[in-house]
Amino acid sequence: MSKTGLLLVGHGSTLPFNKDLVENTAGIITKKHPEYVVRCGFMNINSPSIGEALASFQGEHINSLVVVPLFLAKGVHIVKDIPEAIGLDEGKNRGTFSLNGRTIPLLYADPIGSDPLLAELMIRNAKRALSDL
């Protein structure tokens, strides 16, 4: 059965928290959504790099690859750096990826953005902080 490749892209940091968050999120997706082959890649500092993560899909049986930035909002990394790293022109969200001697669609997803789920997470975090009073 063919699956979809999912590359979660994090910023990277000298502290472990960003890498842990991206890797834990990838683990949650893997457990809940077996239809995805999930990998992580990082803009800088942490490994694997985006290029290394893309290369790790070689040998996998996927029919498309979606690159999902684990960022809240658009900025220079979302608009310029990540598209460049995945071989897309600025402003484009579709391209192709060479995999195992064939070409598959490569799609670039939006960052998290403003979403009611994000608002609910902020309320949950506020309530958790208030419970410490």
Topology:
Layout: E1 3-10, H1 17-32, E2 36-42, H2 50-55, E3 62-69, H3 76-85, E4 94-99, E5 102-108, H4 116-130
Parallel strand pairs: 1-2, 1-3, 3-5
Antiparallel strand pairs: 4-5
CATH uppermost class? Alpha Beta
The fraction of residues in strands falls at 25-35%
CATH architecture: 3-Layer(aba) Sandwich
Please tally the helical runs, counting DSSP H or I stretches of 4 or more residues: 4
Tally the structural domains: 1
Largest sheet: 5 strands, mixed
Q: Can you tell me the overall shape?
A: globular
The CA-CA distance between the termini, in Å, is 52 Å
The name of the CATH topology is: Rossmann fold
Q: Regions with pLDDT < 50 over 5+ consecutive residues?
A: none
Q: What structural category characterises the helix and strand content?
A: alpha/beta
Description:
With 133 residues, the protein is α/β, with parallel strands linked by helices. It has a single domain, classed as 3-Layer(aba) Sandwich (Rossmann fold). The protein has four helices and five strands; from the N terminus they run βαβαβαββα. It has helices at 17-32, 50-55, 76-85, 116-130; strands at 3-10, 36-42, 62-69, 94-99, 102-108. It is globular, with a radius of gyration of 16 Å. The protein starts with a strand and ends with a helix. The model has no long low-confidence stretch (mean pLDDT 96).
